[in-house]
Amino acid sequence: MSSQLDPCQILQTLLPHLRVAAGYAQQIQNKIISLPAKDAGDNFLSAALTDADLSIQTMIEVALLGTFPELAFYGEEYQQSRNTKYFVATELGKENDYLITLDPIDGTKYYLDGFDNYQIILSILNPKQYEAVIAISPAQNCYYYALKNKGIYQGKLEQDLNDCKPLNITNPRPNILLGWGMAHLKPVLKNKYRVIDIENSYSSSQQFPNYNGIFTGDLIGWITKRGKFIDSAALAFMAQENGCIVTGLNGLPLPPLHTCKNHSYEGAIVANSSELHQDLLAACQKFA
Asked: How far apart are CA 103 and CA 75, in angstroms?
């Protein structure tokens, strides 16, 4: 059973492959062109797709099938993958089984526009909760990882897990990021915070914070309409491990993963203080 595996052991085994993937992503970034967009409605951020998304997912799939064939796997591009059929499952399993999830390029639109805040996110989940997440930032030559109840750590790409240091953020910028579909909250918050409404403010010539700005000091909080297991929900878990308050849009704790549909929460609030969380929650409730 996969529960006999140590999540830290899984991360340690996959880290060398993730380093190679990071080098590949950085090497081809200025040469990359977009592929035909995925069907994501009017969300141009989620619709973006590149060779890097597909190639990195294939690389990690090969590494997993070659080292941990007993693990279930769900990658963002699973529908286009030639390897999906070889995994035991793409869904959460029994109580003690792990599901590995992957966002091969989180922030593909950022990546296409030449920004440095895209990332590769790999998570280890059980049916209840996250066990571990590692987020690689290739262009920033660093990564962050978190193990359940053990905090969040940061290191250079060449460093091993044991050489990473606890994340320490000082003087974060008072920026709030509103995810796609949450722009209506901006008027309620803008008098107290600098609110970045990604839906209406994104620019291909000016870098905007991604959700990982909560780890770099570029954000103090964010709200997402849909917390996908592969990206924003994983980052919310990491933020919580670093002391942030994380809830659903109703202010309640996020539900067990197995109760969610389509590999995602119904939304999440992430805040680095109780006061901020109350303000973000009040804004959400005003339009509930």
From this structure: 6
pLDDT of residue 236: 98
CB 136 within 8 A of CB 22: yes
Helix axes 7-28, 51-67, angle to 10 degrees: 150
Tens digit of each residue's pLDDT (9 = 90 or more) over 14-71: 999 999 999 999 999 988 876 665 554 554 455 456 888 899 999 999 999 999 999 9
Homologous superfamily assigned to 2-166: Fructose-1,6-Bisphosphatase, subunit A, domain 1 (3.30.540.10)
Q: Count CA atoms closer than 13 A to 95's CA, side-chain side.
A: 0
- For 80-108, write each residue's pLDDT tens digit: 899 999 999 999 998 889 999 999 999 88
Residue 121's alpha-carbon distances to 27, 36, 107, 171, in angstroms, are: 18, 23, 11, 26
Please provide the CATH number assigned to the domain covering 175-286: 3.40.190.80
The whole-model pTM stands at 0.93
Find the helix or strand (DSSP H, E) in which 284 lies. Answer: helix 274-286
Q: Which amino acid is at 93?
A: G
